[in-house]
Amino acid sequence: MVAAVIWDFGGVITSSPFEAFNHFESERGLPRDFIRTVNSTNPHDNAWALFERNEIDAAAFDLRFLEEATALGHAVRGGDILPRLSGDVRPRMVAALNACKAVFKVGCITNNVQTGHGAGMAGTSDKAAQVAGIMALFDAVIESSRAGVRKPDPRIYQMMCERLDVAPADCVYLDDLGINCKPAAMLGMRAIKVGDVDQALAELSAATDLIFE
Q: Which member of 7, 23, 56, 204 has the greatest number of CB atoms within 10 A?
């Protein structure tokens, strides 16, 4: 039985920031997926992790990311990465969210930063308003920068279950990162790793018995 559908934001509701990272890398002549490599090195305590838990500010992130990137062979400032975080909204995923909301409880767990950019935020006023409208659809939202805990820490999934008053086994969870799907699955959720919209909606349809366009 499905009682709730829980969504990641960046890479699920919006296009993946990794696409923007790859474009940045191409512009700068960096190896493909270099930014992703920096972010995945020492993933629990690096600049990215600290910033998403709101343990450092933007200035400290800028310098700490630069140190970490330089140690891996290329000098990249954290401040150059932040504007690349907000992706484009995927209308079909928003439509699916609305369809799920009509039947189930819906929640959002997003790793983000409190700087006007990030997975659950946007860098322009028009996009910010669009994102705010989508966020208002959820019955509960947990942002890492406000909660002080980030995925893949199992606590953040448990927090969402408590807020929605549902058991993990009665939840479907969507995320574009396997590392974030794993703890959800270990708690008993039906985890869907989002590769593209068609694949994600097909799996969500199978899990919920809903039909999506």
A: 7
Determine, yes or no, domain membership for 95.
yes
39 token code pair? 């972010």
Residues 31 and 9 in one domain: no
Its pTM stands at: 0.88
Which DSSP state fits 14?
Answer: B
pLDDT digits (tens, 9 = 90+) for 131-188: 999 999 999 999 999 999 999 999 999 999 999 999 999 999 999 999 999 999 999 9
Angle, in degrees to the nearest 10, between helices 197-208 and 91-101: 10
pLDDT at residue 122 in the model = 46
Give every strand in the sheet of 4-7, ordered side by side: 140-143, 105-110, 4-7, 171-175, 190-193
Tell me the three-class secondary structure of 18-62, residue by residue.
HHHHHHHHHHHCCCCCHHHHHHHCCCCCCHHHHHHCCCCCHHHHH
3-state secondary structure of 177: coil
Whether 164 and 105 map to the same domain: the answer is yes
Question: Helices 154-164 & 178-186, crossing angle to 10 degrees?
Answer: 60
- Determine the Cα angle at 61 with ends 55 and 63, to 5°: 135
Q: Is residue 167 part of a domain?
A: yes
